[in-house]
Amino acid sequence: MTQRVALAFSGGLDTTVCVPLLEEEYGYDEVIGVTVDVGQPKAEFEEAEETAAALDLEHYVVDATEEFAQLCLDSVRANADYQGYPLGTSLARPVIAQAILEVALEHDCTGIAHGCTGKGNDQLRFEAVWRSSDLEVIAPVRELGLTREWEMEYAEKKSLPVQGGNEGVWSIDTNIWSRSIEGGHLEDPSYVPPEDIYEWTTTPTGESETIELEFENGYPVALNGEAYGPVELIETLNELAGSYGVGRTDMMEDRMLGLKVRENYEHPAATTLLNAHEGLEQLVLTKEERDFKTLVDNEWSQKGYEGLVDAPLVSALEGFIEETQTKVTGTVTIKLQGGQARVVGRDSEYAVYSESAASFNTETVDGIKQEDATGVAKYHGFQSRLANKVTAAVTEAANKSKESEESEESEEEDTLKADGGTFE
Ligand code: ARG
Predict the structure, then answer these.
(1) Which CATH architecture has domain 4-169?
(2) Is the Cβ atom of 171 under 6 angstroms away from ligand 1?
(3) Which ligand 1 atom lies nearest to the CA of residue 265?
């Protein structure tokens, strides 16, 4: 029987060298390449198609953009970010992995492979999905300890089609939620990136624009009064907010294996939607709900970063999220300016807000008068005041007894001296 392996294929150097290696080193008879569309630029698909053709590789492209966009909007309901990064790459990986697995199974593959190194997060995210199947999981770059130099030489020796493109300058990963730029000089945390690493965001100016986003059950559904589907909305906001320089992140990121890496990201739509969503939650959720939800959101984000959005914990967290989001319906006004997407207005029929209760101009609310707060004010901080008093008293008592001990000792000393004794 022909042994067939499906390879996550991008057309870049790593996945290109994997094609012959899967035959030579792993004994497969046939390799099929799978590229999954999660909103990468068209040029990346062309590169993948061209390289596949030149390699004579059976190549499939699966469109998972809609599904991925939906997951991105789920992440908005969880206010998801990892150390300040809104998770583009991490959320895309399980979607890509699942799509490749389906192609592999359809084509009776017995193996499934990726071109990730042994240092990053992506190997873990891919394999977490693939290892649920019986397929042999193969990671040639990691398992054969390949370096870029070795890959270049090997490609040349085998006359493999290696495209110039971005290779060698920065390592870029793009999907509709974020664009990540790493590698090269950027690996030096003190290196200030040149403006030209950015493609989605323009250098912020003083210009501004105010937009209105409408949410229903925690999902953004309309922009400036017009209904938008997930993909369209994200694409539109990437352009719009990106033109005001919104959504740049330059950070040190703690990878799953513990390595710190310098990362640069662009994510204008994500930043805008996350800010707007949180702005609306501030209005409609109680303080207790908000406080507890930060813990839930944090766990969701952690799993999202790990590529484990199918963990039972995540569905349990989503049970809580779902319950809270029934009230996250309303409109948020956002001002795009100077690299920021700032909430400047919010409105919802679920607002846990009473203007008269908060206002300085009304005397009585729900039968409660201003002076009723006097009792609360008397009690506020009571325990701390008491604790501080007790501590002060104990300290004073201890100081006093130390003083009296010292004076007793010096009295004894004086007596000794008077007796002619020495005291060295
Ligand atoms: N460090 C990020 C993550 O693990 C993104 C890595 C993207 N890869 C790249 N070659 N730029 O989610």
Answers:
(1) 3-Layer(aba) Sandwich (3.40)
(2) yes
(3) 5
Nearest 5°: CA angle at 310, between 308 and 313?
85
Digit-coded pLDDT (tens) for 194-223: 999 999 999 989 999 999 999 999 999 999
**How big is the chain by its Cα radius of gyration, in Å?**
30
Say whether 4 is catalytic: no
Distance, CA 173 to ligand 1 centroid (Å)?
6
Catalytic residue among 81, 122, 173, 297: 122
174 CA to centre of ligand 1 in angstroms: 9
Atom of ligand 1 nearest to the CA of 88: 12
Q: What angle do CA 278, 279, 284 make, to 5 degrees?
A: 90
359 is catalytic: no
Return the pLDDT at 414: 76
Architecture of domain 195-367: Alpha-Beta Complex (3.90)
pLDDT band at 421, cuts 50/70/90?
A: low
* DSSP tally for the chain: helices H, then strands E: 14, 16
| Sequence-distant (≥ 6) Cβ neighbours of residue 74 within 8 angstroms | 318
pTM over 0.90: yes
Active site residue 14: yes
**Per-residue confidence at 168, pLDDT binned at 50, 70, 90?**
low
Q: What is the rounded distance in angstroms from the CA atom of residue 237 to the CA atom of residue 358? A: 34
164 has pLDDT over 60:
no
Q: Which atom of ligand 1 is nearest to the CA of 171?
A: 10
Say whether 386 sits in a helix, a strand or coil: helix
Mutate to test the pocket of ligand 1, among 263, 301, 309 (most ligand atoms within 8 A of CB): 263
Residues whose CB falls within 8 Å of the CB of residue 338, separated by 6 or more in sequence, listed in order: 204, 205, 206, 208, 244, 245
Cβ–ligand 1 contact at 173 (below 6 Å): yes
What are the boundaries of each domain within the chain? 4-169, 195-367
Point out the ligand 1 atom lying closest to the alpha carbon of residue 121: 4
pLDDT of amino acid 422: 53
Residue 359's pLDDT band, with cuts at 50, 70 and 90, is confident
Q: What percent of the chain has pLDDT over 90?
A: 88
The confidence score (pLDDT) of residue 395 equals 97
Please tell me which residue in 4, 10, 75, 93 is annotated as part of the active site: 93
Residue 122 known to be catalytic:
yes
- Label residue 165 by pLDDT band (50, 70, 90): very low
